[in-house]
Structure formats: C-alpha cells, structure tokens
Design goal:
Elements: H1 3-14, H2 17-23, E1 30-35, H3 40-53, E2 55-56, H4 59-67, E3 77-84, H5 88-91, H6 93-99, E4 103-107, H7 119-122, H8 126-134, H9 137-146, H10 163-172, E5 175-179, H11 192-210, E6 216-218, H12 226-235, E7 239-241, E8 260-261, H13 268-275, H14 278-295
Bound molecules: zinc ion.
Zinc ion binds next to β3.
GO molecular function: hydrolase activity, acting on carbon-nitrogen (but not peptide) bonds
Pfam family, one: Polysacc_deac_1
Protein name: Polysaccharide deacetylase
Length: 298
C-alpha cells in the first residue's frame, strides 16, 4: 500500500463512505472488481468480507439479466475477475470452492501454458514500466530487447497457469475464462495488424485451452481505442472489460464494461474502500484537480 492509500483508506472508511456508496450508488448496479494474483490468506478474508456486503454473481448472470427479464440481479451485485492468468490463481482455487464463489479469469493466452513470462514481469521499476506503456509497441519491444528480454524467451520458472490447471477450473463450473490478448501489448499503441492479431488469435487460443467458447476480453492495462472495439466485435467477442471507473447497469456498453481495481494483499479496509469505488473516484477527482491546477498555472 502506498503512503497516500495508508493515510486515506482508514479515513475514508471511518467516514462511512463505502457503506453509503454500497447502499446508494451500488445498490441497483453491478460492480466488477479486478484482481491479479491475490495472496491466499488475504483473499480468504476478502471473500468473507465481500460476501457479507455484496452478492457475488458470475459475469454470465449479469449478461443473462440483460437478455431476459426472467433473470433478476440481486442488489449490490458483485463480479470478481482476475487478469493475466497467474499460476497463483490455481493456489486460491480451494478458497473459491470453499466459499463457492464464481469468478472470471482473463488469460494472456500466448503466455499461459508456456515457460514464457509477460514483458512487465521483467520490469521492476514502476516509473520505467509506465514509460514503456506510453511507447509505440515496436519502441517498447526494442527497449525490452535492450534489457535482455524477448517475448519468445524460455524461462526455468513457470509463473502462469498451465492447461491442466485451467481445465480443472473449467470443470468445477466456478471459473469462466476470457481472453486478455496474446502477449499483453498496450493495444492503442499497436499497428492495426498487430492489434487484430493480438485480439483475434487470443480468442482462438483461449478456446483451445478451455475447450469452451471465448466470448469476453479484458483490455491489457484497461486501455482501448474505437479501433480495438471494432476488432473485438469482428472477432466475435460479445463484451469487453475496461478499467473505466464506475458501476454497470443494463444500459452499459458491453464493450466498455466498467471495472474497479482491487488490491491483492493489504487490509480489508482498503479492499472495501476500493470495492466501493470511493478510491477510484477520489483518484479521478484528484487527477482532474491536478490537471485544472496545471492548466491554470497554479
Ligand atoms: Zn493484464
């Protein structure tokens, strides 16, 4: 947890903001959370805390409720998603079974079930990682090559889920899988042909891994352009998840579903503030304030 979030989350919680949001803004909407590779102990406690405050539903139920009036969503509906497909996700599978909690995992489908590593795993420096995300795709790959990283490199350590783990999660009926591109580029920085390959082929390779239709995609880093949405539609995806802040209703654009980033460890207070969206809205608001200050020369 950063210093600012340490300082702010207990404050925001003690002010009851997350309670108020749950019972007003979130009450009739679907909140979607994004985890990556949560620690087992934290995740066990997190699920207990979330189940007491929200109704956890599969993402598919949200879509069914839009298609059919017969399917009614509970109040404070919550969907849990995981991006990338880390091997640790199989480590928390017993916790999902214990709590009987449905989730969706989005796979970097060219990297799971291999001994490759995602490019951002190589880069530990946060500021440099941010810089890399701003570069054009080819410049990013050239910069990574200078660091000694290539996408087809074979490592000794397997850090992503393998096919057997994915299969046993599919068979449980608790885990649904979606695509998260082949290699996790920042799509808006890619050429048309690279973006099309990353989106189309990740659908096919996710289907080969799960033996099930792949209808959903989550955008790497939550970044997308109109072109990327067009490619998703053409490739046959039915929905895409972003990191745009907010909650979802029956009217939310299926290719711009809103999600909130959840922590993989830390305190339950921090998790609850982030699950309520208060944290993300605070960040958006303070970002806007900073921009206003910059533009006004303050
Ligand atoms: Zn990702």
């Amino acid at each position: 947890m950063t210093f600012t979030s340490k300082l702010l989350t207990p404050g925001l919680r003690s002010m009851g903001i997350s309670w108020v949001i749950r019972h007003t803004l979130q009450r009739k909407k679907t909140t979607i959370l994004m985890f990556h590779r949560p620690e087992s102990q934290f995740f066990d406690k997190a699920i207990t805390a979330l189940k007491r405050r929200y109704n956890i539903i599969p993402l598919s139920t949200y879509f069914e409720s839009i298609k059919s009036k017969e399917v009614k969503l509970p109040e404070r509906a919550l969907v849990l998603t995981f991006d990338d497909g880390w091997a640790e996700n199989f480590g928390i599978f017993p916790i999902l079974k214990k709590h009987h909690v449905p989730v969706t995992i989005f796979l970097i489908s060219g990297i799971v079930n291999t001994m490759h590593h995602p490019w951002f795993y190589k880069v530990k420096d946060r500021a440099f990682k941010k810089e890399l995300k701003e570069m054009s795709d080819s410049t990013r790959l050239a910069a990574l090559k200078r660091l000694g990283f290539e996408e087809n490199q074979i490592f000794e350590e397997r850090i992503m889920l393998n096919k057997e783990e994915i299969q046993s999660m599919v068979e449980s009926g608790l885990v649904e899988f979606g695509a998260h591109t082949l290699t996790h580029p920042i799509l808006p920085r890619c050429s048309d042909s690279k973006a099309a390959k990353e989106i189309q082929q990740s659908k096919e390779s996710t289907e080969a891994l799960t033996h099930a239709p792949c209808k959903l995609l989550s955008f790497p880093n939550g970044e997308y352009s109109e072109r990327d949405i067009r490619i998703c539609k053409k490739a046959g995806f039915e929905a895409a998840l972003t990191l745009d802040t907010g909650f979802n209703t029956g009217n939310t654009d299926h290719f711009r579903l809103k999600r909130l980033s959840a922590p993989d460890n830390g305190t339950i207070s921090e998790l609850l503030v982030k699950a309520s969206g208060a944290w993300a809205y605070f960040k958006v608001f303070s970002g806007q304030q900073q921009r206003v200050r910059r533009h006004s020369g303050l």
